[in-house]
Amino acid sequence: MLSFRQLLCFILSLLSFLSVFYSVGKLGVFLATPILRQRDFRHVLLSSLLDDRSLLKATLFSLCFNSVWIVLFVIQHSAMKAEVVKRFWRKLGLEIAERSVYNIASSYCLLILLKNWKTTQSYQLWYVEVESSPVLWWTFVSAHIVSWIVIYGGSLLMDLPELIGLKQIYYDVNDLAPPMSYKSRELRSFYGRLRHPSFVGLSVVLWITNSMSLDRLVLAVIWSIYMYLSWNTNKTDLEYQKYQLNRKKVELTHVQE
């Protein structure tokens, strides 16, 4: 029989699961869908944009408005990982729900960003016409699909149920220690510096687009810098990954024999 605390944490873990997959799915569609120029679209040069004060004001307003939601996501994503927040959940006796609440908050910050996003198409760094070329269309879409498959596969390797928050509830219900305590010291240290798989995959979905408008550029730049600064892996982590890769190769070789 589940206690009230365990039932509450279980509900939060299910909400975390649904929120993550829904918000990431929305983000994937938002980033992967090729952009088509509207009939009333008026492309301008950067020099023309700077000279047209009304257009410049509208563009800057959209960029600032979008930046608020981008920074909100970054702040939430970092602040809720702080040790003081984790101590708060431990004091409430809800430490097993900490990961679930973190995911829920991240998901809703992401959904708020997507819902309030303002596109600025007055100036574009590059634009590739894909409407008349199915090959080009599917080239961009396929690049995103492959990248998300890599990201999802990396999440499975990094223990997806634990990342979502479901595993913590399962272990608590069965009177087991937290899942992280069963991982090696090297892996716990690695997770402390890298909790998202595939820097390359996420970079592809941010930067590979047929239309790099100013709003997409701001999103790509801020999130790329955030990933680069947050994922501070070191030489020890690299050696650990090499060791695990060689270990898997040996195990697969024995299985095949």
Any idea what the radius of gyration is?
22 Å
Q: Give the overall pLDDT as a whole number.
A: 82
Shape: globular
| Number of E strands | 2
Please write the string of helix (H) and strand (E) elements: HHHHHEHHHHHEHH
Structural class: mainly alpha
Number of helices, where a helix is a run of at least 4 consecutive DSSP H or I residues: 12
From the N-terminal CA to the C-terminal CA, the straight-line distance is 46 Å
Helix fraction bin: over 70%
Your description of this structure?
The chain has 257 residues and is mostly helical. The chain has 12 helices and 2 strands; from the N terminus they run αααααβαααααβαα. It has a two-stranded antiparallel ribbon. Helix 1 packs antiparallel against helix 8 and helix 6 (134-157) packs antiparallel against helix 10. The mean pLDDT is 82.
A few lines on this structure:
The chain is mainly alpha-helical and 257 residues long.
Task: Give the secondary structure arrangement, pairings included.
Blueprint: H1 4-32, H2 46-51, H3 53-79, H4 83-92, H5 98-115, E1 124-127, H6 134-157, H7 160-164, H8 166-173, H9 185-193, H10 199-207, E2 211-213, H11 214-230, H12 235-256
Antiparallel strand pairs: 1-2
Helix pairs in contact: 1-5, 1-8, 3-5, 3-11, 6-10, 10-11
Main attributes?
12 helices; 2 strands; mainly alpha; 257 residues; two-stranded antiparallel ribbon; globular
